[in-house]
Amino acid sequence: MNQCTKKILTLSTLIVAGMHIINEYTDACISPMTSSKNEKIFNWKDLHISYSEKGNCNRPALLLIHNLSPSSSKEEWCHIDDALANHFHIFTLDLPGCGKSSKPNITYINYMYVEFLKDFIQKVIGKKTNVCASAYSSAFTFMTARIYPEIIDKMIIINPTPLEKLYAPVSKKGKYKQNILNVPVLGTFIYNCLVSKSSITDTYKYKFYYNEDNISDQVIEMAYYNAHFGHSSGKYLLGSILANYTNINIIHALSKIENDIYLISNGSNNKKTCDDYKKYNENISSIYLSHCRLLPQLEIPETIIEKICNICSIK
Predict the structure, then answer these.
(1) Eight-state DSSP code of residue 1
(2) Full-prediction pTM beyond 0.85?
(3) Residue 128 and residue 62: Cα distance in Å, rounded?
(4) Coiled coil where (predicted)?
(5) Sheet of 61-65, strand order
(6) Can you give the CATH number for the domain in which 75 is found?
(7) Total domain count for the chain?
């Protein structure tokens, strides 16, 4: 072995060791979050799904589904679930690959979430359910309503994903990104960079919130915890999202859904998206909000509580 090769091997070993140390440090620095007294576990296909239940079981069921993202969890609804529990039988959950739920090394596809949602409603809630889904989770929610219409009542979608984004196919470039993230040390290091606290803060400032002054430290800490809980295994979900495995063309399904559908949207940015949805289903109503972006349930919770109660005819 010549001197140059030795130097390259030594440098490579040092780089990998450095990334491993940074990964271990990131894992060790996650602030532990206390569990809610309402937190429960649903065992689904060898996965442990964290969920919470609030309110009177004799009231209408309402399932709140957070945005499909490694940094998201049922805590996305923390400002509204208690108030809604006065009127509904409330369920919130951490989707597979998110929050405190299991994050296995698999490819996450839209149909998996459809089957999960069906089983959760049937086996945990046990009655026809109103569903409120956020952002990217809208796709599998629509597909569930199309395939299993008997388990879903009213549908409320907050800032639905544009249709053209949902039918973007799996690409070679996307699969390459997924494969990189799946590499044990390098992929984890890249993932930790992508979901660093500064990166998450920027996402909340420029995509999730209208007014950055409304962003609390608690919200950022929770998102960071969600992204890294489980030894940064959220990278497997992120890889599937980047490769478009979680996408699906919902246009045909959308046109066949007979449920009442309500789209709640930040009107300045999402009016075209809502109009596109309404082309395919006459049962869709749209509600436009101001001074918010992707997550109004966190930024203007009182407004979202009011809209949900009005939609479900709750006084």
Answers:
(1) -
(2) yes
(3) 9
(4) none
(5) 39-44, 47-54, 89-93, 61-65, 129-134, 152-158, 261-266, 284-289
(6) 3.40.50.1820
(7) 1
Half-sphere exposure of 24 (CA within 13 A, CB side): 6
Phi/psi for 58 (5° steps) reads -85, -5
Cα distance between residue 71 and residue 167, in whole Å: 23
Query: DSSP alpha helices (H): ranges in the chain?
Result: 3-28, 81-84, 110-120, 138-147, 163-166, 172-182, 184-194, 197-203, 217-228, 235-242, 251-256, 267-278, 296-299, 301-311
End-to-end CA distance of the chain: 79
Does residue 198 sit within a domain? no
Given this model, what pLDDT does residue 21 score?
82
* Res 98: pLDDT: 98
Per the domain annotation, does 300 fall within a domain? yes
- Over residues 94-118, the mean pLDDT reads 97
Q: What pLDDT, on the 0 to 100 scale, is given for residue 136? A: 97
Q: What is the mean pLDDT of residues 106-134?
A: 98
Give the separation between CA 96 and CA 70, rounded to whole angstroms: 10
Mean pLDDT across the chain: 92
Report which residue type is found at 85.
A
- Residue 202 in domain: no
Residue for token pair 């879903």: 152
Domain that includes residue 54, residue range: 39-166+249-312
